[in-house]
Design brief:
The chain is mostly helical. It is built from 17 helices and two strands. The longest helix is centred in the C-terminal third of the chain and has 28 residues. The chain binds 3-methylbut-3-enyl trihydrogen diphosphate (2 copies) and magnesium ion (2 copies). The site of one magnesium ion has 3 residues, from helix 10.
């Protein structure tokens, strides 16, 4: 769908269909739900007030006099999400004793970068459901999603410059660059059944774990923590993010689509050789391996049921789950370097959540 198609026009035109809506003044913050964004009971008690500030920064930062930007941004950012990356940054800052206010700004920045990657990712993956709603690409078209994703990226950089810390800029510019590499690597791998575990891990460490790593590191950096503590938190984030994506890839075959707010089978339809499939090809019979190879090469949702049957026969989802558990255990072990505190305890619970999660 192009940005000038009927649907977009209907949204840009006034409700009576006569002429465009008056663009809101740029200073008007984008309107979205103000409920505490971290959806787990685990994070809400400790982060509620901080997350409300982060949501305010996000709302204000998404303001633009370009109506379509506000609409798309409101749709995706206001549509919920677990807000895990900002939570991670806030907890890390707190675990290191930070008492300033920059953590709210940088938490909003990592959520904006995450949201930009989702807008782009849903175009690339041709996904139609996200956070329980139609994706921005399904509603507004690919062009609008890509361009508003660019807006979010560049607004995130404006915001991080306002913090005026060169190290924050370095960490975040490196992270966004690595994420982009991960997504491109994944594109190169798509439809290729010969992708092995190492190649798969390389992709998920870049596309997902890197932003978790940066989020955790930034909290420590703001608090001017010891380099050893900063490194420990960065490594915690990297392992946590890897566990998180491993489970995401399990849920793509076994989750409840209402709970995860996404369609199952997107990975197969995109020809993504995720760990469950790689494992099933390795330990399954020749016939099972051939079935998965062909399904990956075809990249069709029609193959979903037989593929799930192979995954069950080969215990491949269980294997991926155990790999996620190992990553989560590594993440927790990194926290041995920190003095105990409620924030550290919550980081430990977050490591468990990454594996136990059903959404
Ligand atoms: C989705 O991340 C993309 C992955 C890295 C799997 P989340 O599951 O954190 O997405 P939201 O923000 O909660 O929607
Ligand atoms: C994560 O990969 C996307 C990014 C980190 C940009 P997926 O493609 O698995 O994420 P979902 O499943 O669409 O959320
Ligand atoms: Mg995707
Ligand atoms: Mg996924």
């Amino acid at each position: 769908m192009s940005v000038t198609s009927g649907k977009i026009r209907a949204r840009i035109d006034g409700p009576d269909g006569h002429g465009p809506l008056q663009p809101p003044p740029r200073s008007t913050p984008v309107d979205f739900e103000t409920r505490p964004a971290v959806t787990t009971t685990l994070l809400e008690p400790i982060l509620r007030d901080d997350m409300l500030v982060v949501d305010r920064v996000l709302r204000e930062s998404l303001a633009s006099d370009v109506v379509l930007i506000r609409q798309v941004a409101e749709h995706i950012v206001g549509g919920g999400g677990k807000r895990l990356r900002p939570a991670l940054l806030l907890l890390s800052a707190r675990a290191c004793g930070y008492t300033g206010t920059h953590h709210h700004t940088l938490a909003a920045v990592v959520e904006m970068i995450h949201t930009a990657t989702l807008l782009h990712d849903d175009v690339v993956d041709e996904s139609s459901l996200r956070r329980g709603h139609a994706t921005a690409n399904a509603l507004f078209g690919n062009a609008a999603s890509v361009l508003v994703g660019d807006f979010l990226y560049s607004r995130a950089f404006q915001l991080m410059v306002s913090v005026d810390r060169m190290r924050a800029l370095r960490i975040l510019s490196d992270a966004t660059n690595v994420i982009a590499e991960g997504e491109v690597l994944q594109l190169l791998n798509s439809g290729n059944p010969d992708v092995d575990e190492n190649a798969y891990l390389d992709v998920i460490r870049r596309k997902t774990a890197k932003l978790f790593e940066a989020s955790a590191q930034l909290g420590a950096m703001l608090a001017e923590a010891d380099p050893a503590i900063e490194n420990a938190l960065a490594l915690y984030g990297a392992h946590l993010g890897t566990a998180f994506q491993l489970i995401d890839d399990v849920l793509d075959y076994s989750g409840d689509h209402e709970a995860i707010g996404k369609n199952l089978g997107d990975d197969l339809a995109e020809g993504k050789a995720t760990l469950p499939l790689i494992r099933a090809m390795k330990v399954g019979s020749a016939a099972d391996a051939a079935l998965i190879r062909e399904a990956l090469e075809r990249g069709r949702l029609d193959d979903f049921k037989p593929v799930v049957e192979v995954l069950a026969r080969t215990d491949a989802l269980d294997y991926a789950h155990r790999c996620a558990q190992a990553e989560s255990a590594h993440a927790s072990a990194c926290l041995d370097a920190l003095l105990d505190s409620p924030a550290r305890q919550t980081l430990l619970k977050l490591a468990a959540f990454a594996v136990e999660r059903t959404y």
